[in-house]
Specification:
- By secondary structure, the chain is mostly helical.
- The chain has one domain.
- The chain has helices at about 5-25, 30-55, 65-85, 90-110, 115-140, 150-170, 175-200.
């Protein structure tokens, strides 16, 4: 098991500070529901990073951490849908709830590759929403070009999720050591991208 380093902890601490700033600063002009959804996502990110700082990467072996971390991309993608596609909010909310529930149930009930496949499907779908929605809106001229940083954040969160999913499935795209070395940097750059992108809202 790769042991967490001072560099890793500093990157995770920086991610915690970025998430805390986003929670405190909020997003102007949004409905209370959308603000609550975004706050939930960044709050979970903050807690997950604190747990990694305290527990090290051994914390990623905890089923609870894996399940709770799934709520990060689900919350942020749901926030985007609530703002930009309100007509699709309820169906996507159902997907998020079912996906989160399925991730939790399969982690404790099933063995083998099924839990990882469910995690990859839920994480991947949420990541695609975060990537594609700002991209399409930018192409249509409905949002500033800087909002594309949200898409970059979605790509990074999707990359991190898939790297961990394949690692858990026993078919890692990279070695465990490399993945754990990259993860704090991915989380930091992801948070920085979200913070930058949402500043253009």
């Amino acid at each position: 098991m790769y042991k967490i380093t001072i560099r890793d902890r500093l990157l995770l601490l920086a991610t915690v500070l970025l998430a805390a700033y986003q929670i405190i600063a909020g997003l102007d002009g949004l409905s209370p529901l959308s603000i609550w959804i975004y706050t939930t996502g960044f709050g979970i990110l903050l807690v997950a990073c604190l747990l990694l700082i305290i527990l090290g990467f051994e914390g990623l072996e905890s089923q609870g951490v894996v399940i709770v971390s799934t709520a990060i991309p689900l919350s942020i993608s749901l926030g985007l849908v609530s703002v930009h596609l309100p007509s699709c909010f309820f169906p996507y909310l159902v997907f998020c709830l079912v996906g989160f529930g399925a991730t939790g149930v399969t982690r404790f009930v099933l063995r083998g590759k099924a839990p990882t496949l469910v995690l990859a499907l839920v994480h991947g779908t949420a990541g695609l929403v975060i990537i594609l929605l700002p991209l399409i809106l930018s192409i249509q001229g409905q949002v500033p070009a800087g909002y594309l940083l949200v898409s970059l954040g979605g790509g990074l969160i999707g990359l991190g999720g898939l790297l961990l999913a394949f690692l858990r499935a026993g078919k890692p795209l990279l070695s465990q050591e490399v993945i754990y070395q990259l993860l704090p940097l991915i989380l930091f750059l992801m948070s920085l991208s979200f913070l930058g992108g949402f500043s253009f809202w």
